[in-house]
Amino acid sequence: MSSSLPLAGRVAFVSGTSRGLGQRFALTLAEAGADIVCTSRTLDSLRDVQEKIVGMGRRCLGVELDVRSLDSIVAAMQETKAFYGKLDILVCNAGCNVRKPAVDVTWDDWNLILDTNLRGSFFLAQQAAKELMIDAGYGRVILIGSVTCVSGYAGLAPYGASRGGVKQLAMSLADDWGIHGITVNVLAPGWFKTAQNAVLYENQEWVEYLSDRIPVKRPGAVNDLDGPLLFLASEESRYVTAQTLLVDGGISGGATKAMVVKK
Ligand SMILES: NC(=O)c1ccc[n+]([C@@H]2O[C@H](COP(=O)([O-])OP(=O)(O)OC[C@H]3O[C@@H](n4cnc5c(N)ncnc54)[C@H](OP(=O)(O)O)[C@@H]3O)[C@@H](O)[C@H]2O)c1
Fold first, then answer.
1. What is the CATH number for 201?
2. What's the predicted TM-score (pTM) here?
3. What are the backbone angles phi and psi of residue 164, rounded to the nearest 5°?
């Protein structure tokens, strides 16, 4: 392995790597030199991504993980410890969403979203810190948030509450663990087409409406997240912690036009 790779010798755990943004995060970190832990609730669905990572010359451990179960989280971190003996980077990506008008949200919808996105992220980060990062005196914890960390959208009440919680979690954990050399930040994507929301992008009228509200005039492409992820995962981000980095083409900056803008 070339030592010019910025993450050579590092181990990165990315939750939810069977598809979508999490899979891209794992591949991006592997390309930068890190060995990887991939996770899914169904190990079979990790085969492709594991093959790609091993094909790059990195090691890749596939682990079964359901972030709604503490036993599963504890077991996944123990497997990581047994296999690599260390963990430098944790990306809490596993997440879900249910889009509904607030009046139709059920008790179970709320529990599914909050348990997965907020409770799951907290306990995964807790286990990583407790089992591996604190003793090593080093860690880069990256919680995946969303533009809903900082703004509200109809149809996304529980999801937005979970992401607002993730933003707060990063601030509290950063203060808790800064003394141990662990930084905790949120990488908050804007609007990216994945399996989770593909149906929205089938409606061209909606895509045009969305694009018009984004200052850079398009939804995100997955490679828009590569650089921000690598920055937060790097040694060089050592003095950046408790922050929420929005990668959203500017939509969170406020999108009501004060004048007609033409190209
Ligand atoms: N797409 C966007 O525009 C966007 C924007 C902002 C934030 N995000 C967030 O970014 C993350 C990835 O989004 P995505 O669009 O790539 O979603 P996705 O395609 O639905 O993928 C979600 C991933 O999370 C895993 N997952 C779901 N529930 C889990 C659980 N209980 N335990 C463990 N893993 C679980 C899934 O793994 P298995 O099903 O294989 O277990 C899957 O790999 C999510 O947290 C999402 O909320 C997405």
1. 3.40.50.720
2. 0.97
3. -60, -40
